[in-house]
Amino acid sequence: PQEAWANHWSDVQEFCGAPAQEMLFCGMAIGKRDESKSVNSLRSDRMVVDEWTTWL
User: Residues 21-39: pLDDT tens digits?
Assistant: First the structure.
């Protein structure tokens, strides 16, 4: 459901006043990390969210 608005991208783009060359994206992670799985020990460098996000 969190991506349901993607089918109406032009309405969302118009409502937000987003330029045509920008992509609007929404993501959400749901669940609980399993500490026993080695993949969950991976840590990567990340940019501060405000460096690449425009909050509407």
Answer: 888 777 777 788 898 999 8
Share above pLDDT 70 across residues of the chain, in percent, rounded to a whole number: 93
Please, are residues 6 and 30 in contact by the beta-carbon 8 Å criterion? Answer: no
8, 24, 30, 37 from 56: Cα distances, Å: 17, 11, 23, 36
Tokens coding 52: 């690449």
**Is the backbone of residue 31 left (phi > 0), alpha (psi -120 to 50) or beta?**
left
Q: How confident is the model at residue 42 (pLDDT cuts 50, 70, 90)?
A: confident
- What is the C-alpha R_g of the chain? 16
